[in-house]
Amino acid sequence: MDPCPFVRLTVGNLALKIPVASKPARSVVHPSSSPCFCKIKLKNFPLQSSVVPFIPPESQCPDSQVQPIAATFHLSKSDIDKLVGKSIFAGKLCLKISIYTGRRGTTCGVNSGRLLGKISVPLDLAGTENKATVFHNGWVTVGKEAKGSSAQFHVNVKAEPDPRFVFQFDGEPECSPQVFQIQGNIRQPVFSCKFSFRNTGDRNQRSRSLQSESGSSRSWLSSFGSERERPGKERKGWSITVHDLSGSPVAVASMVTPFVASPGSDRVSRSNPGSWLILRPGDGTWKPWGRLEAWRERGGSDGLGYRFELIPDTSGGMSAAGIVLAESTLSSSRGGKFTIDLGAASSNGRATPGRSTSPVCSPRSSGDFGYGLWPFCMYRGFVMSASVEGEGKCSKPRVEVSVPHVNCSEDAAAFVALAAAVDLSMDACRLFSQRLRKELCQQQDTLG
């Protein structure tokens, strides 16, 4: 089947330059002491914000490596159809950017920033599913012009085709559902999932695909996690195997570190997260592809914290540290999207709920643009996203994977297994004072 058309609208290369006033005045923005930020709004999409770096007044262009992408909007075919729909009551579609001086945030419920100016960039999205389009790239005057003291704002706005394969679980992962590929109104089954329990005391409970694994892959499981019995409250041994239409296993998500309640509490803490290993078949055995850690955040967010890292293939004898591709938080009540997008980092380097923060293939979100520093890095731009429902809600994850990252069914299956692990982590990280559904408690009830 053909992939679904998507468009990636990006806002980047932000910069602000302000002529230095000959006489200091309260009304003049002084770049050395006044931070700036902007809010970026596209109709019907959530507001996004970004820091705006200052550059010297004599500079002609900002350094594109400083902040290549400040905001990203992912548009499906239906999104584009709605945005470009003709209406006598609708005005021309525009991307609106408001530039503020001062730090982001609120004080006593009042926004702390002071509005410097607004700009609108007209958008014509027709045909952007097939060709890249630059809507604006350059400087624009913002604020009040007063004797050469007007500010100049630089921005690049462009749309690029970003086709994706779309998969939909036909049920909750713990119910061993089928997985369909979606293309328009067509639904075609491509995978099936088998949820099971893996326990050191009862190997017969393990899924059939893992029973046949060689000793080397078992050593991978033990080296990346712990299956030892732990005192106190814990959830352990969950496993989900993805099969292709012939029934052959093509990916596995295996819980390798139990989700354990911190001493004196009912929650899985960030300091002691549970973890999953995502495995792919290779050379007659299972090979680790990625590792997902999850925990329950404290404080007002009270969300699902997660970190996903790619594990390099060391079969050639080389050793390399894992690369963190996504690290963020999902709302426990509302859910959200688990996303790996290596071009949509928040400009302040901090995690934004529901978004990945590692802009490039560099360890621990360091932000260096060294694509060649890690020889195993193949992932750039948008990689994948998976929908996750909040606690207590029926979850049938929808998975989107960028076309360049799928060369075979095993590639797609690995992302489907990862999506299942993220979804199951929402249950694994529920407070231990709350009961799980029976499909997730079968093992505990059997042993009890």
UniProtKB/TrEMBL annotation:
Protein name: Uncharacterized protein
Organism: Bauhinia variegata
Native organism taxonomy: Eukaryota, Viridiplantae, Streptophyta, Embryophyta, Tracheophyta
